[in-house]
Amino acid sequence: ITFRAPFRASGLYSLYKSIKNGKVFQKKNILWLRIVGSLLIVMTLCEDFARYFEYQYVQQFLANTSVVIDDKFYLHFTRILLGLLILFVAELFKIGYDIQEEQDLTI
């Protein structure tokens, strides 16, 4: 029950529920996918930049010691690609939504 609480509190539960009910191409689903994909990319970049600046600070703090800090800048490409994939799926949902709207208007 505690594992599901954050999932239900987020909009991902409504996305899951609407897809499960067969209502895939809805504006709210497109919006949630865009939000999740964008936040995943932004949060990954923020985390990576924060880690880099933290390493720079620690390296300056430990400059007179024999401790060596690896201060290379790393990007988590896997999470960034996952965010881009989610944004791509959101655009596919948008195309599906537009086609569905066009079909509903022609009937």
Short description:
With 107 residues, the chain is mainly α. It is built from four helices and no strands.
Strand percentage lies at under 5%
| SS field, number of helical segments | 4
Q: What's the overall average pLDDT, rounded?
A: 83
Structural class computed from helices and strand pairing: mainly alpha
Distance between the termini: 44 Å
- Low-confidence spans: none
Radius of gyration: 21 Å
Order of helices and strands: HHHH
Please report the total strand number as a whole number: 0
Helical percentage? over 70%
Task: Describe the global form.
Answer: elongated
Major β-sheet profile:
none
What does this structure look like?
The protein has 107 residues and is an all-alpha fold. 75% of the residues lie in helices and 0% in strands. The protein has four helices and no strands. The protein has helices at 4-9, 12-20, 27-61, 77-106. It is elongated, with a radius of gyration of 21 Å. The N and C termini lie far apart (44 Å). The model has no long low-confidence stretch (mean pLDDT 83).
Strand and helix layout:
Layout: H1 4-9, H2 12-20, H3 27-61, H4 77-106
Salient structural properties:
107 residues; elongated
